[in-house]
Amino acid sequence: MNSILQGFILGFILVLPGMSGGTLLVIFGIHEALIRDIVKFNIKPYFPLIGGLLMGILASGVLFAMFFESYRDPTVALLLGCLLASIRAVLNDCPKMNKRYGILMLLGLVMGYFMVGDPVSLVDSGIAVPWWILFVGGAFSSAAMIIPGVPGSSVLILLGIYDTIILYIRDLNLVGLGIFALGSAIGIFLLVKLLEKVYEKYKGAISYYFAGLIIGSSRALLPHTLGAIEVLLFVAGFALVWWWSGVENKAQGSRG
pLDDT at residue 65 above 70? Predict the structure, then answer.
């Protein structure tokens, strides 16, 4: 598949909570080579992929911004379903629940619940977000994105900047996006190999804790009103990512 098209697809789905970019890289057959080249700082072969990625993020961000503005509750209902269904992929191939994992999951739930701020909604562009939050959000979301099964956008929801990034994309806020992109570059080049090693060593503990974070932070995507449309879109989002998680399981299985 053309690298630009691969990048566009990757960028487009990254905006959706619950969708793992790392798994898509596995499906495209470039995950292991990409990790090796990242460690070697060899990015020249991936310029077309990066170009497509940026176009996909822009297209998806503008599209979701439009829906957020006009149909806030149906949109967050769809995203809520996507986010909660991603737990299937996060807990894929993990050891069975025990007391230790249960405590970690509960801790993650509590932390996720109290870390998120107001429910997601496109805010006034005049409301400033501290630069370091944008930087940290970029670093950890991009590093997490590379790990198959881990949805990087969940980090943005947890930090309360998911809607801010969507707004920045829509308005082409180059300063905010620049800080976020700088953090993303740092995360990819300096954290991704470390996170992958830590994740492989402590996969069970990290996965259950992260699943708790997802459940707790999901309150940021609660609709203000609940009607038939919101319920249908929640089910649609849940079904989409649940199916996608099945694809992830097969992809990770073939990778192993």
Answer: yes
